[in-house]
Design goal:
By secondary structure, this protein is mainly α. It is 70% helix and 0% strand. The chain has one domain (2-263): Glycerol uptake facilitator protein (Up-down Bundle), CATH 1.20.1080. Helix 6 (147-169) crosses helix 9 (236-256). It is globular and about 65 Å long. The relative contact order is 0.16. The mean pLDDT is 94.
Amino acid sequence: MDKVKNSLWGELIAECLAVLIIILIGDSVAAMYSLYDPSPYQLSYWGVAITWGLGVTLAIYVTGAVSGTHANPAVTLALACYRGFAWRKVLPYWVAQVVGGFLGACLVYALYSSVIVHYAVSHHLDFANDGAASGVFFTHPGDFVTPLHALLNETILTAFLVLGIFAVTCQYNTAAPQANSGALIVGLLVAIIGASSGYLEGWAINPARDFGPRLFCFVAGWGRTALPSPQNYWWVPVVGPLVGGLIGATIYQTLLRPFMPALGRHSTPAAD
C-alpha cells in the first residue's frame, strides 16, 4: 500500500512539474510577444507557437517516464475513458495539473513583474479593472469571437489535439513515430494548432494551462478580470477542452483503431 501511495505521489509531482514547465516556457514567450514594443515575434507568430510546442516536448521528456505526461485534464479524462487509466487518479491528476499551472505562472511573474508593471503604467492600464497584461497568463476571446463561438473553437481544437495524441501513442498504429520521437510530434501538433488558430482565443486546449494561471492572477491583483473574467469567460477554456478531448478520443477509438491491420494480427491466433 505504501508503495502504491508513493508511486501516486511521484506521478502527481511529475504532472505538476510538467504543466509548470509548459507554463513557464509558454507564458514567457507570451510575455515576449505582448509586452515589448516592437515585439520580437511581431512578424512571426510561428515563433510563439513553436515555443509553446517545444515546451510541451520538454515536459514530456522530463516527466514522461514517471506519469506519462498527461499535463492536460482533457487528456487525463480521455485516457480514463478509453485507455484504462484509473478513474481514482483522475481528480488528483487534475489538481496536480492546475497547481502546476499556478506555480508556473508564479515563476513567469517573478521573471517579468517589472516589465508587466511598466507595460501597465505606460499604457495607462489597471490590473483589476482593465486586466493589464493578463494575456500573458490566460486566454481571452479574440476579435469578433463570442464566448459561445470560443467554446466551439476550443472543443474542435482539443478534439484535434487528442485525436493526434491517441494516434501517436497507439501501439497498433504502425505509422506512429517510433523510439522517443513521439514527444517531438506532440509538441509539433500543439504548435500547428497555435499557428493556425491561435488568434481566435489563444488556443488554450488545456484547462490547466488556462485555469492555473488565471487562478494565480486572481490572487495576484487582477481580481475579477481573471475570475470570473469579462462575460464570465473563465469556464469556456475548461469545458470546451474536456468535451473536445472526449470527442477526439472517441473518433480515434471507434472510427480508426478497430481497422488497424496490426490490431487484427495481434488478435488472430497464429496459424500452425
